[in-house]
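thought: fold this chain, then report.
action: predict
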Amino acid sequence: MEVSSHFHSARCKPCSGNPPDRILQTLDQFKQDLIQLLGDNLFEIIIHGSYVLDDFQPGKGDLDYVVVTNENLDDSANFRLFELHDRYRSGKKLLLHQLEGTFYPKHFLKKLSFPFTGCYIGTGIKGWRTINSFQNSLMDLRLINEHGVHLLGKNPKIYNPLNFEILKEQLSDLETFIISAKAGKNVGIGMWITIVHWCSRTIFYYSTGRIGSKTEACRWCTKRPELEPFRDVFKNAECRRYPHGEEAVSSSTRTVCMVLLEFMENYLLSIDLQSDSDKQCYSGAVDKG
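observation:
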């Protein structure tokens, strides 16, 4: 059955203010487990994503992390990490099953210098793997530098991308989204919601000069007159998080999302990077307001 409206809206229940005990307990348990598992190779655990943007929803989405190690990880260490997260997913104790992230040696994160060997723990077990390439976005690194929560109290040097590097990556991401979207009916609800979240957060970033959460960015976009044709998709994607369910996507929603991607192409190409320092200074197609 197709959904006639643009997705099915849900009520947002972000974690605001002081985090609930079970989130703190989850992070402490994760920290203790990694101390025991990695020993002297563990340098720092950094929490980022929705948690640091006050938008984390217990039971939905991910609790994102980046683990910094002193040295490369070998196959033995990665196998133990896979086992650890397998226990987290099967046991569903606290919120450990929502942990998702990457393990990088500190020499890589300092300058994004290759080669390295790390580990990736994704949403699905099939995606867990040893890595030797960057798995995060440059926007993740910007967020980590600005708002990352360090569980061990150390201060590793994390590469802070330049504005033009972020824009270049986003243009590449947009091309990937357009290619995927052209698959039409083969694109599931999860991909469309991901696209809408990405569009809203990208516009919000260049219009305000700061990184917004999915909820904040979608809500902001619904109030912009310039974005009125996409108001419904922003409004209804606002509180949607993984798992997205199996609902069908209406043809009208697919059409609106495709037009949104066309808008994004023109929008990103219009960005004027007035300053290439760490301070954001942009001039784009949507007023700051």
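thought: worth noting. The first strand starts at residue 2 and ends at 3.
final: tokens above.
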